[in-house]
């Protein structure tokens, strides 16, 4: 008796009409390419915010939360990869988070819920990347020209122009070489920053160390949940299905190798940046540790050349991060605007791509210039974006697809994570938005300083 044929995981009908899948999420990559994409999505200059997150937690709770969130996210991404592989073997290869969630949970509203959350993440990270890149340029400029007249929003405009040019790279897969360089850059600047912090800690200009928390118990609780949201945002990516979509099928086992590559880099960079930065600056840590090392008043706390090189590495990696997190937005745009039958580089598809992607980057740049709240943006994005997608949905999707026994450890640990991080997300959203509102009184539109 002949074996039944397996369903086609790439139905021609979809490829004939879905330009987002064909152009932006083309499936050609190897496992190490997925590792490059994951590392760029997770291990970025946001690690320079870790000392700032620690100041709301202290040493013990800070290290515990960093380790716990790292373990939970690795486990979460592993389960998400298993869910995607399960669906692929069943003949339904999902290349978008929203389609996966809607299929497994059988709910149309989940499709739009994931779109909304992913849009919040992508836009938030895009704004944060441009803002931090502009701040890096400003730091370099002020050290070469202390009395210069250029303001933060002008540097943000410069970064936005460069991002408009780079945004025209047509597909996620076409970023693989850029993301390899990004991986090397994050290793480079993290160890430069660690060296700078050690130098600063032992220099005669070392700041007085104070690791005390807020005096009010309620303020300590709010600060702690804000810090947890920031760490969640640093570990989160919210686009793992789209990254796995770039792998040439079958994807079985490939994402696990990519995750191991990513978390090896994360282990060395996250802990070294968090511990060295908080050790030196304590509860005075800035939302960008480079700014703490190069204070507005007084000399730099580390050699200028070392800091300048670190800032340059950060600036270059931010361009890659902005590109990675823009891919979901570009995929949505091209699914609606492009005609797959005419080819990726046809005039019919090239002009809409140029216009739509440029408008998206301009919007992110404008918001970055108008609302310079990098630390607070990280907290809000972590609470309302990364926690639902990276800490709750993967466990739910796994329990729905693999149906572990209700007596098994896997079922109960997944249920515990869902409940615990639902609470953390609610509290984190409340405390992060509260801090955002409080900080709104400290600045004016298009300020030349990033509010901590």
From TrEMBL:
<keyword id="KW-1133">Transmembrane helix</keyword>
<feature type="transmembrane region" description="Helical">
    <location>
        <begin position="380"/>
        <end position="399"/>
    </location>
</feature>
<feature type="transmembrane region" description="Helical">
    <location>
        <begin position="354"/>
        <end position="374"/>
    </location>
</feature>
<feature type="transmembrane region" description="Helical">
    <location>
        <begin position="100"/>
        <end position="132"/>
    </location>
</feature>
<protein>
    <submittedName>
        <fullName>Probable GABA transporter 2</fullName>
    </submittedName>
</protein>
<feature type="transmembrane region" description="Helical">
    <location>
        <begin position="222"/>
        <end position="240"/>
    </location>
</feature>
<dbReference type="Pfam" id="PF01490">
    <property type="entry name" value="Aa_trans"/>
</dbReference>
<feature type="transmembrane region" description="Helical">
    <location>
        <begin position="260"/>
        <end position="281"/>
    </location>
</feature>
<feature type="domain" description="Amino acid transporter transmembrane">
    <location>
        <begin position="28"/>
        <end position="433"/>
    </location>
</feature>
<feature type="transmembrane region" description="Helical">
    <location>
        <begin position="34"/>
        <end position="53"/>
    </location>
</feature>
<dbReference type="GO" id="GO:0006865">
    <property type="term" value="P:amino acid transport"/>
</dbReference>
<keyword id="KW-0813">Transport</keyword>
<dbReference type="GO" id="GO:0016020">
    <property type="term" value="C:membrane"/>
</dbReference>
<feature type="transmembrane region" description="Helical">
    <location>
        <begin position="152"/>
        <end position="169"/>
    </location>
</feature>
<keyword id="KW-0472">Membrane</keyword>
<feature type="transmembrane region" description="Helical">
    <location>
        <begin position="181"/>
        <end position="202"/>
    </location>
</feature>
<keyword id="KW-0812">Transmembrane</keyword>
<feature type="transmembrane region" description="Helical">
    <location>
        <begin position="411"/>
        <end position="433"/>
    </location>
</feature>
<dbReference type="InterPro" id="IPR013057">
    <property type="entry name" value="AA_transpt_TM"/>
</dbReference>
<keyword id="KW-0029">Amino-acid transport</keyword>
<feature type="transmembrane region" description="Helical">
    <location>
        <begin position="301"/>
        <end position="325"/>
    </location>
</feature>
<feature type="transmembrane region" description="Helical">
    <location>
        <begin position="59"/>
        <end position="79"/>
    </location>
</feature>
């Amino acid at each position: 008796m002949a074996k039944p044929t397996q369903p086609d995981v790439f139905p021609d009908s979809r490829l004939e009409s879905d330009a987002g899948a064909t152009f932006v999420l083309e499936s050609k990559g190897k496992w190490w390419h997925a590792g490059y994409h994951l590392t760029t999505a997770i291990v970025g200059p946001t690690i320079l915010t870790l000392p700032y997150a620690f100041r709301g937690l202290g040493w013990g709770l800070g290290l515990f939360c960093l380790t716990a969130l790292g373990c939970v996210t690795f486990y979460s991404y592993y389960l998400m990869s298993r869910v995607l592989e399960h669906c692929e073997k069943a003949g339904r290869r999902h290349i978008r988070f929203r389609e996966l969630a809607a299929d497994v949970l059988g709910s149309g509203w989940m499709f739009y819920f994931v779109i909304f959350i992913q849009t919040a993440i992508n836009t938030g990270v895009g704004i944060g990347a441009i803002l931090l890149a502009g701040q890096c340029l400003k730091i370099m400029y002020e050290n070469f020209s202390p009395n210069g007249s250029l303001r933060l929003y002008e540097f943000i405009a410069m970064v936005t122009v460069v991002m408009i040019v780079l945004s025209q790279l047509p597909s996620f897969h076409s970023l693989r070489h850029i993301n390899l360089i990004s991986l090397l850059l994050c290793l480079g600047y993290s160890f430069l920053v660690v060296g700078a912090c050690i130098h600063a800690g032992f220099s005669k200009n070392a700041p007085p160390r104070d690791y005390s928390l807020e005096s009010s118990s309620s303020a300590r609780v709010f600060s702690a949940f804000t810090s947890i949201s920031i760490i969640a945002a640093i570990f989160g990516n919210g686009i793992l299905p789209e990254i796995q979509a770039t792998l040439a099928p079958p994807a079985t086992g490939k994402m696990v190798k990519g995750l191991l590559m990513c978390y090896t880099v994360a282990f060395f960079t996250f802990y070294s940046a968090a511990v060295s930065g908080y050790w030196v600056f304590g509860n005075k840590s800035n939302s960008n540790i480079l700014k703490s090392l190069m204070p507005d008043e007084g000399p730099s706390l580390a050699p200028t050349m070392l800091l300048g090189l670190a800032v340059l590495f950060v600036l270059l990696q931010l361009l890659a991060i902005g590109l990675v997190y823009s891919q979901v937005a570009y995929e949505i745009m091209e699914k609606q605007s492009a005609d797959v039958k005419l080819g990726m580089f046809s005039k019919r598809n090239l002009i809409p791509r140029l216009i739509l992607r440029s408008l998206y980057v301009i919007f992110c740049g404008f918001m970055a210039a108008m609302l310079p709240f990098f630390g607070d943006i990280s907290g809000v994005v972590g609470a309302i974006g990364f926690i639902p997608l990276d800490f709750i949905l993967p466990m739910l999707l796994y329990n729905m697809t693999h149906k572990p026994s209700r007596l098994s450890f896997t079922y109960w640990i997944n249920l515990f994570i869902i409940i615990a991080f639902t609470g953390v997300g609610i509290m984190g959203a409340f405390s992060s938005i509260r801090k955002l509102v409080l900080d709104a009184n400290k600045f004016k539109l298009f300020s030349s300083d990033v509010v901590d």
